[in-house]
């Protein structure tokens, strides 16, 4: 007990001594009495895109079960309806098919067509023909050929299963957390689904590819294999190309279960809109109504870039 009392007495004397005027270690720290000085920094920043601001709050007239209208430059959503609902994307699937074919196979790769599968919309390719991937992609995206989708997937190292697995891996990488693919063409399956929100992520990604943009704005033409002996006429399933001003593509889709689907990219007066329609009664009319609503119902206001003129630093005395 005495030892404890001695220790406590010693500690008390120690703390009193340390904090007596003139003995405190805190008094040895020297603080600056003047404010920090400013250093000017010249920062050249890119201008921010104009931000859409709604004029009147009334909804567009559309029949689609799910829809999304998005400003491409700012990323701002202008209209959304059930945008997170999982639905069959039908042939909108072929956009992801094209991404995997381009990135994993390369557009100059030549493939010899395996045994062909014909389902729904086809170009008419035949087994044994030799094709460059880039030419097949016109048949895939312009004419929406299911036979092209199957030919690409079946020619992939590891076959169709590996190709579809790569589609799902790419979807995960792009943050398409509510999407899952079972086949490369969009044939209906309960486990084959996506959402308008996920598909917008895919469009923002793929629209960076100039070759993709070149394909989807094509209205009609001919594609030939590497020998030039097998040629096929293709025409776009996008009925708004060359009809509705400003439409630059992208892709249609339809099955009895999925209904009418359509993704479009619209450009006019330096404004760029993405429209996504899923399970519609009239995809092209819905798209026109949605784009027209977006075009007239929003003002675009410029936002000044943040002016980083100075940073602070401590200056010793």
Report on the structure:
This protein is of the alpha+beta class and about 325 residues long. It folds into 2 domains: about 25 residues, no CATH class; about 250 residues, DD-peptidase/beta-lactamase superfamily (Beta-lactamase, 3-Layer(aba) Sandwich). About 30% of the residues lie in helices and about 25% in strands. It contains 8 helices and 13 strands. The strands form 5 sheets. Strands 4-3-11-10-9 form a 5-stranded antiparallel β-sheet, with helices on both faces. Strands 1-13 form a two-stranded antiparallel ribbon. The chain has a two-stranded antiparallel sheet with strand order 2-12. The longest helix is centred in the first third of the chain and has 17 residues. The chain is globular and about 60 Å long. The two termini are about 50 Å apart. The C terminus is likely disordered.
């Amino acid at each position: 007990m005495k030892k404890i009392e001695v220790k406590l007495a010693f500690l008390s004397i120690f703390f009193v001594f340390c904090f007596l005027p003139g003995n405190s270690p805190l008094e040895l720290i020297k603080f600056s009495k003047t404010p920090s000085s400013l250093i000017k920094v010249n920062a050249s920043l890119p201008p921010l895109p104009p931000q859409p601001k709604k004029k009147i709050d009334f909804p567009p007239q559309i029949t689609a079960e799910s829809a999304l209208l998005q400003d491409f430059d700012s990323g701002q959503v202008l209209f959304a309806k059930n945008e997170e609902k999982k639905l069959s994307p039908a042939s909108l699937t072929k956009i992801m098919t094209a991404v995997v074919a381009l990135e994993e196979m390369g557009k100059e790769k030549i493939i010899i067509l395996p045994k062909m599968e014909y389902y729904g919309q086809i170009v008419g390719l035949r087994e044994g023909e030799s094709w460059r991937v880039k030419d097949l992609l016109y048949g895939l995206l312009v004419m929406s050929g299911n036979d092209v989708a199957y030919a690409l997937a079946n020619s992939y190292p590891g076959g169709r299963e590996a190709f579809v697995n790569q589609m799902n891996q790419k979807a995960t990488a792009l943050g398409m957390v509510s999407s899952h693919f079972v086949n490369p063409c969009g044939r209906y399956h309960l486990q084959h689904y996506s959402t308008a929100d996920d598909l917008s992520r895919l469009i923002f990604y793929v629209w960076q590819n100039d070759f993709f943009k070149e394909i989807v704005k094509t209205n009609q033409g001919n594609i030939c294999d590497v020998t030039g002996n097998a040629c096929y006429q293709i025409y776009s399933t996008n009925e708004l190309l060359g009809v509705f001003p400003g439409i630059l593509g992208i892709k249609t889709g339809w099955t009895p279960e999925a209904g009418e689907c359509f993704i479009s990219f619209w450009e006019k007066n330096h404004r760029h809109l993405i429209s996504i329609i899923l399970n519609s009664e009239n995809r092209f009319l819905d798209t026109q109504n949605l784009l027209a609503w977006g075009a007239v119902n929003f003002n675009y206001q410029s936002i000044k870039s943040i002016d980083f003129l100075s940073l602070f630093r401590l200056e010793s005395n």
